[in-house]
Amino acid sequence: MSATINIVYLNEISDGSFRNMTVIFLWVFWGLGEMAILPIAKLTTSWKSFFLITVTIPSVLLNSVYFLIIETPKYMYTKDT
Question: Of 2, 7, 54, 72, which has the fewest beta carbons less than 10 angstroms from its beta carbon?
Answer without folding.
Answer: 2
